[in-house]
Amino acid sequence: MKSYKYRIYPTKKQEQKLNETLITCRLLYNNALSERISVYKENKKSLTYFDQCKSLTKNKNEYQKNCNNYLPIGFFLPY
To answer: SS3 string of the chain?
Structure first.
């Protein structure tokens, strides 16, 4: 199996946008994980993917609304 590595050279503006997007992804993931853990500790029930999507949609800030196109489709699906 072959694999390829590509080096990218973003401009300062692109680098800033990439950093903002990665920070947003990290915060969303950590908040989602924290929510799942707290709901399980309180109710001893797992939070479903669809329930969590509803709550995340309600709590988006302006940047998250703008960068939504960059997030992978299965970003919060459990493995």
So the answer is: CCCCCCCCCCCHHHHHHHHHHHHHHHHHHHHHHHHHHHHHHHHCCCCCHHHHHHHHHHCCCHHHHHHHHHCCCCCCCCC
